[in-house]
Amino acid sequence: MTGTGLLRGIRTTPRRKVLISGASIAGPALAFWLNRYGFAVTVVEKAAALRGGGYPVDVRGTALEVVRRMGILPRLRDAHIDLRRLIFLDGDGSEVASVSPHTVTGGVAGRDLEVRRGDLADALHAAVRDDVEFLFNDSVDTLDQSSGHGVDVTFRGGGRRTFDMVVGADGLHSRTRELLFGPEERFHRYLGYCFAGFTMPNTFGLSHELTMWNVPGLAAALYAVGDGDDVHAFLNFAHPEPPYDAFRNPEAQRDLVAAVFADAGWEVPGMLAALRDADDLFFDGVSQIRMPRWSSGRVALVGDAAYAPSFLTGQGSSLALVGAYMLAGSLADRDHAAGFAAYEHSTRDFVTMNQDQVREGDAALFPTTARALEQRNHMLRGLSAMPSTEGRPAHSALTLPEFMPVT
Which pairing describes strands 85-89 and 160-163: parallel, antiparallel, or unpaired? Predict the structure, then answer.
């Protein structure tokens, strides 16, 4: 950290100190805006460094205005993935439909962005790294608000510090949320699917396209984000209950996926072979986080930690960016109690609209019955090949307010 940009004129009161747990999307975005509003910000991240690469994420609607105000929109436009088509295949590998991505995602061609998650994280970090403190390879162990005058934090690395506020931006399986509100199961809404994602060699000749194979309850997809040597592979399957035993056991994850897809056709056998050797496997249930409130005392949550919408909505990163902007602005001229209340009041309807785009077991791209698959295929055949010019209303349902002037 450098001192550049930290001093904003003569202050008569000490700068409020905020700890943010998590340095992926919501955390650095929140750090950027809190720093602009005069807070002294520390970001702690359990990983040893920023995670590069990663699967593609979308920035749409209201979130585009957030990144424009941050000054990183040109950088993200340069990193934009030009996905040109989605190809859907039947169980025998024959083509069902080839459509423009935006007709399926509800995005707007030429306006909305799709970038690698690592590129978005890099852009956010670069925008704030000289103005806030980053602590990598560490994490929050305990939180104690009993003094009434701040939050006493113990770190896994052994350090102890006190902050005026703490914000959990530590994702779907948030440690901060667990410390504050209890077990994840209280807020976890499982949507009836699991998925495995990994990279594998692009031996298929794919370029700027996603090809998806479906049978009832199973889906396999190969996503080539460019002309590179690798593709992102995804295996998605319906599963009535969350496989809790597999969530923290990579070998159990591989075994479960292999068993579920054992009789699948198309390119799935080769994908399963690649899965066995993949060193970047990401496995999880398709789920949301739904909470009655996003704060307690001097600790609040933002992004997936508070309101993960699931990847089926494509809105996780956008909600994180908008939530970070709204939380920081709500705190700019308020104490923690009033600021957290204003954040929730102004942001919850937007979050709920986006979460409600998908409900348990009804994901259009992953039908679980033969009838639903045929209805999905009929819908795809009828889609216009023309790009969408109107995004989904939920993506832009919040108009960003102007908070205190940024200096």
Answer: unpaired
